[in-house]
From TrEMBL:
This is Uncharacterized protein with LGFP repeats. It comes from Kineococcus radiotolerans. Residues 335-359 are annotated as: Disordered. Residues 323-359 form the Excalibur calcium-binding domain. Keywords: Signal. The lineage of its organism: Bacteria, Bacillati, Actinomycetota, Actinomycetes, Kineosporiales. Coiled coil: none annotated.
Length: 359
């Protein structure tokens, strides 16, 4: 009887028709080797892929077969793996195995926030309920991995790569933007720096492309280098950028460690030139004089006086693995305020030492 069913299925397959009622027999007739083994591993006709809809056939360097809810692809270098749902749609849009992703090298793997990922020879596909399906590849994938993949501050990708000026590309993520150009490499811009960068025209503004990640500076601040300048942030002054001759003058004073402190404004017009104000002075530029440092007796933005009483030391941060670089990020994630012992709490965010950060 089994031989008769297989013979009937073979005739139906040759005629281009697959009958749902004989799905298993069709698989026996249509599938071979690793493709058949993967299909069986997933439950065959009654598994996640459903019945066969297209017999196994060759690609340029492998084989594949299609099913009601997906496909199985095999190549000597990748093995046999299934592709389905949003990942199959995205893979198709990139050119299937002939695109930059090439063949899958894993099945779907569950990860945080109800998401999944799947590895390919040329990159990784990510999906979450909040972000849909997107790929990360090349330099962005290496950078993303160094920052913790979807578990890092970037979260899930929310776009594909987008081409921009000078042969560069950018890609959006839940927690920031990744930029790459041949001259600058791959770096992210996030948080307050992302807002500042947008305000100044992204890569088309005076900063151009980022050339570093954020780096720690004095008094709980951070800075980030760009091709055309430097962005600074501190809890007291917020985020501001310096470019050109004004940046050179600032450098001559010792940057944020020097007499001027942190910038408190962006570069702005004044009669006859441009100016940036700092905590303890300003730098003004004109075509006639160039950039000149001015330090009035009164600080532009006085540094707050220390508290009259010494607060008790804050408790150590909870070993949660959750990390917010600043309170802007904590608020954007809906985590603020953060009490001592809660995920993401650390003393640097608790400015008044009362055990509650980002109030």
């Amino acid at each position: 009887m089994r031989g008769a069913v297989k013979a009937m299925t073979a005739l139906l397959v040759l005629s281009g028709t697959l009958v749902a009622g004989v799905g298993t027999a069709s698989a026996d007739t249509c599938l071979t080797g690793a493709v058949d083994a993967r299909y069986a591993q997933l439950g065959g006709t009654f598994g996640r892929l459903g019945a066969v809809t297209g017999c196994e056939q060759p690609t340029a360097d492998g084989r594949f077969a299609t099913f009601q809810r997906g496909a199985v692809y095999w190549s000597p270098a990748s093995g046999a793996w299934d592709v389905s749902g949003s990942f199959r749609d995205l893979w198709a849009a990139t050119g299937w195995e002939n695109g930059f992703l090439h063949y899958p090298v894993s099945g779907e793997v569950g990860t945080r926030a109800g998401g999944v990922f799947q590895n390919y020879q040329g990159g990784t596909l990510y999906w979450s309920p909040a972000s849909a399906a997107h790929s990360v590849s090349g330099e962005f994938l290496r950078l993303y991995g160094s920052l913790g993949h979807e578990n890092g501050f970037l979260g899930y990708p929310t776009s594909q790569e987008v081409p921009i000026r000078d042969g560069g590309v950018f890609q959006l993520f839940q927690g920031g933007v990744a930029y790459w150009s041949p001259a600058s490499g791959a770096h992210t811009v996030s948080g307050s720096f992302r807002d500042l960068y947008a305000r100044l025209g992204h890569e088309n503004g005076c900063l151009r492309y980022p050339t570093s990640q954020e780096l720690p500076a004095r008094d709980g601040g951070v800075y980030q280098r760009f091709q055309g300048g430097v962005a600074y942030w501190s809890p007291i002054t917020g985020a501001h950028a310096l470019c050109g001759a004004i940046l050179d003058a600032y450098a001559s004073t010792g940057y944020e460690n020097g007499s001027l402190g942190y910038p408190v404004t962006d570069e702005h017009d004044v009669p006859g030139g441009r100016r940036v104000d700092f905590q303890r002075g300003y730098v003004e530029w004109s075509a006639a004089t160039g950039a000149r440092v001015n330090q009035p007796v009164a600080a532009v933005v006085p540094v707050p006086a220390p508290p009259t009483t010494t607060p008790p030391p804050p408790p150590p941060p909870a070993p949660s693995g959750v990390y917010y670089r600043n309170c802007d990020e904590a608020r954007a994630a809906g985590a603020a305020p953060i009490r001592a012992g809660q995920p993401g709490y650390r003393p640097a965010l608790d400015r008044d030492g009362d055990g509650i950060a980002c109030e």
